[in-house]
Amino acid sequence: MNAFHLFMQIPLSRGVWLLAFLFSLLTSSQIPAADASQEFRDERGRLLYSIDSQGMVSMFENDALDNTVSVARGPRETMKPRITEISPPSVETGKITLVMLKGANLVGAKVTTRVPGISLKTEVPRANSLGVILRVDQAVKPGPVQFEITTPIGAAAATVTVVPAQAPVTPGKPKGDAVKPGKPESCPEGMVAIASAAGGFCIDMNRTQEGDWFFVEQACSYNFKRLCWAEEWEQACFENQKGAIVLRDLLGQWEWTRTSEYASGRERSGPVAEGEDWLAVIRGKDGCRSRDRKPPGDGTRPGRCCK
Fold this sequence. Notes:
Elements: H1 3-8, H2 12-29, E1 38-41, E2 47-51, E3 56-62, E4 68-75, E5 82-87, E6 90-92, E7 96-104, E8 110-112, E9 118-122, E10 129-136, E11 143-151, E12 154-163, E13 191-194, E14 201-204, H3 213-222, E15 226-227, H4 230-242, E16 255-262, E17 278-283, E18 291-294, E19 305-306
Parallel strand pairs: 6-12
Antiparallel strand pairs: 1-2, 2-3, 3-4, 5-7, 7-10, 8-11, 9-10, 11-12, 13-14, 15-19, 16-17, 17-18
């Protein structure tokens, strides 16, 4: 008796079941492994990207509480990272600067550079923005520096210009042939103008929200501003006391400034040694001349933005 006759002896219901089983084995063995979807997760296991069998990419943006706040979907080519704006476009040697990159598809992005003397720390990237804290040694040669921004989907490039450090102008009355103080003709809403020998600056009338130094500097940069230098803060404080301008809640609480120092106490005038701590200067607790120093991640306090 051949196999056909044996199969014909099987009851109909069992025969149908057997055919279905054989068909499923045949069809499943023909599915290529490439059709399986891919997933990319961060070190905490959160899903960042997935690619389905058709090559469509889904990007998942999560908040600090691991809640998904947005999902973007499209072909792989359109989901590669893009950079459209860099603020500020230049950084000074011997200083630490928060550079904001704006664009698209930046979830899970990592930033690298091959230039010696530049170290960086990447903040948690959002879908359309990415903060990079750059520390540039004094020995870095001025000029354009390229950074590579990579995600599991692709890569993009950004260029920041390194410029020589410029010492903040110390407030004071110009003498002799010194340049006469200049003053901005106008300031953005919520800011007031202060005259200085460097052409003046604008300062916010209100404090920022409280946070560590990185949070406050980032808050300023979102509005294309920066934290005030300690000297600018002091000059504005004296102008406020004279009644020349109106700054709210200026005294009584420490405020972050952009000025930094070595942990040893010297004002920063050279590169930061490897592993050496730097401290941010804070102002305003007891008066216009009151000052102290704190590590940038130590405690929460407000700041004041300048431009």
